[in-house]
Give the backbone structure.
Amino acid sequence: MCCIIMDNIKIQTSQNVDIEYELASVGDRILATLLDYVFFIAYGLLILLTVSITKSRIFDSIAFWVIILLPVLLYDLVCETFLQGKSFGKMILKIKVVKLDGTQATFGAYLLRWLLRIIDTRIFSGGVALIAIILNGKGQRIGDMAAGTTVIKLKHKVTINDTILNKVIPDYTLVFPEVSRLTDTDIAIIKEVMLVSLRTNNQEAIEKLAIKTKTAMGITTNLPHTQFLATVVNDYSFYSFDK
């Protein structure tokens, strides 16, 4: 379940908590594509250089054109499948393909995007994709509409605090022993919702998550919601390292 607010996409997680992601801009997507073309050119030049050095007469063979064209044709499908929704250009721009329901896109979704890329970007040089993205409002070209996907921006910097566990001080004191009732998945969701909600100032999502977390732990506390959730993450980190 999702809705769009300006350049953000709001996704409802399986815990019924709304989190917002920033949609990749048209400029981001165009630049990512241009960067991918740089890899194509580099690949082609490498093949040509190899043929030149070895003085091979492979130019006239079908095998040569298969070697040249097949990786380029399959590039987007293979990259997005094995790099979790990213091509090398997308990795550099820190954007990725996701499903509109917040789940990781499947191979079937990547395949649909790849097949319809011919219409979106190849036949009309990206004109169809550009118009679709602008008019659609969800950052979707035709391939995305068919696959139920969109492209979002990722965090610009990854630190230890972006992993499931936080680094806690050596003499840290456990505040809520009830964190033992939570799982790695619970903590990952808490951290993700906090990071996105704080960035977008979505206090409602933080409050909703705090209430659900207290219920899951079976506790009550007067700590402010953000402070409570941060304490839970630190407690779980300490609990996990101390086990």
Q: What stands out?
A: The radius of gyration is 23 Å. The chain has two domains: 2-153, 160-242. Residues 156-163 have pLDDT under 50 and may be disordered. The beta strands are 2-5, 8-12, 18-22, 95-99, 149-153.
